[in-house]
Amino acid sequence: MNGRRSNKEGGTNKRSSLVVWTTIAVVVILIIIAILYIRSGSRREVKPPTGQNQGQVISGEPRKELPQMDEKPKPRYASFKGCPPEGDGGDPELNRNKNRVDEGNYIPVEYDAVLGLSWPRGIERRDHKNWPEKAKREIEKYEGIPVAVEGFLFGAKQSGPESCNCHGADKEFRDYHVWLVKNEGDDRTKSIVTEVTPSLRANHPNWDLRNLNKIARSRQKVRVSGWLMFDPEHPDQIGKTRGTIWEIHPIMKIEVNQDGKWVNMDDLNFGKRGGNA
Predict the structure, then answer these.
(1) 55-267 falls under which CATH superfamily?
(2) What is the pLDDT of residue 48?
(3) In CA terms, which of 44, 142, 165, 256 is 20 to 30 Å from 26?
């Protein structure tokens, strides 16, 4: 009798153990699947906005100061032809910021609101992970604000290979540095650097160097919209080729003032496109 009871209890214990271990295995598998899904989502090719969907500039006069935004739009990032948003080295957080692709409702702000924006000293040329927490909070107050700034183009130039673009050698992997100045005829010493990124440029054929420099030479007023971003990599260029290390990066929308109206650069007729200029 006792033997049969022991066998029965032993069988019950084995079944209970099997249920427990099966449950644990299922949970572990689900966790692994969830992790793989999240990782694949961060690298998924996100289609950047086209000329028909670039976001809108909020109506009204440009603000003298940058707004305080308790909640900013959540960024969306894009891989581009196999290059993930974090690039292939350097500061991955900075690279992700550069590879943002989501459109926004851009807040008009005065040129000097960006040019005069300060930053915590000591974080220049340092990766985000090495910033003090207080410095991170100071930058986070403003980084990621959707802004629209008026001015004039000084010129545009293709950058060299960068980690944010996986050091791609071909021109399709290069950023375009576009210098925005406050007044017609100003030089770059007090310019704001704005950048056209490869994934966005692919959807905007008018955004080539020839056309950008043609606008610069014409001295037409422009309005550049995009995401305010802090780039700590070039403090040595302040007062030389830029006025600040705050940038509009990436550019999401470019407009040209014609007869008092803002015209989307995508809608302008530049004639034969030549790519570089």
Answers:
(1) Nucleic acid-binding proteins (2.40.50.140)
(2) 62
(3) 44
